[in-house]
Amino acid sequence: ETGVTQSPTHLIKTRGQQVTLRCSSQSGHNTVSWYQQALGQGPQFIFQYYREEENGRGNFPPRFSGLQFPNYSSELNVNALELDDSALYLCASSLGGRVGNEQFFGPGTRLTVL
Amino acid sequence: AQSVTQLGSHVSVSEGALVLLRCNYSSSVPPYLFWYVQYPNQGLQLLLKYTSAATLVKGINGFEAEFKKSETSFHLTKPSAHMSDAAEYFCAVMVSRGGADGLTFGKGTHLIIQP
Fold first, then answer.
1. Would you tell me which residues 65-104 of chain B have a C-beta closer than 8 angstroms to some C-beta of chain A?
2. I want to staple A34 with a disulfide (CB 3.0 to 4.6 A). Which of A46, B6, B24, B33 is the partner?
3. Which residues pair with B99 in a beta bridge?
4. pLDDT tops 70 at residue B43
């Protein structure tokens, strides 16, 4: 059974640029959630995708967007990068359709915005 | 709104001593509660979860947590600390946002193990 993988592991961008982060979900999972973890903080929920549709979003602006593909892998896109977007971005996969199912996290992508 | 509060940003214990990491939750409905561990430069690993089946939940690596509704608490314990337990620990509550079940995390507790 393959776990959750993310790419790239590290990324450096400049303010105003756009970035795409990728996530492959664990085998058998149809739901992907994205989280932002600033240094020294707990992760914050960005949004969740279930069967290729965004089905819920946290308190993040529209310049944070995503996609989920038929194989349930997912992308997180961030436009017009700001310095405060520097963080560890985590994706988590789960089996949707039942409340309380645990989410399995990938190793994260460390984004630095200069 | 559902939330969790972790008391103590840093906890230091001696190797072999009891580990106690505190988490209090706020929820208007029966909560789903989780404990995750994060080692340096890694993602989060699930230690255990509470989903109302039993108030005492056993997890991996010898950790357990007890759900106490009267105290709105879900504290994490381990009888005997090991050096490998040094890490960041997060308590989380699952919150429904529209159709999504996202996790709301506490700020974390850094566990330090003294030799």
1. 90, 92, 94-104
2. A46
3. none
4. yes
Q: Extract the tokens encoding B83.
A: 């050096």
Q: Are A85 and B24 in contact (CB under 8 A)?
A: no
Q: Give yes or no for a contact between A47 and A56, defined as CB atoms under 8 angstroms apart.
A: yes
Q: Name residues of chain A where pLDDT drops below 50.
A: none
- Over the range A81-99, which residues count as b (16 or more CB within 10 Å of their CB) and which as e? beeebbbbbbbbbbebeee
Contacts of B87 (CB under 8 A, 6+ apart): B37, B38, B39, B40, B110, B111
Q: Give CA–CA dist B111/B63, Å, rounded.
A: 13
Choose from B37, B44, B90 for mutation: most chain A CBs within 10 A. B44
Q: What is the distance in angstroms between the Cα of B71 and the nearest Cα belonging to chain A?
A: 22
Q: What is the Cα–Cα distance from A39 to A84, expressed in whole angstroms? A: 11
B7 touches chain A (CB under 8 A): no
The minimal CB distance from B103 to the residues A47, A103, A107 is found for A103
Neighbours of B61 (CB within 10 A): 12
Contact list in A for residue B100 (CB cut-off 8 A) is: 33, 47-48, 50, 55-57
Contact (Cβ atoms closer than 8 angstroms) between residue A9 and residue A109: yes
CB pairs under 8 A between A and B: 77
User: What's the pLDDT tens digit per position in A65-94?
Assistant: 999 999 999 999 999 999 999 999 999 999
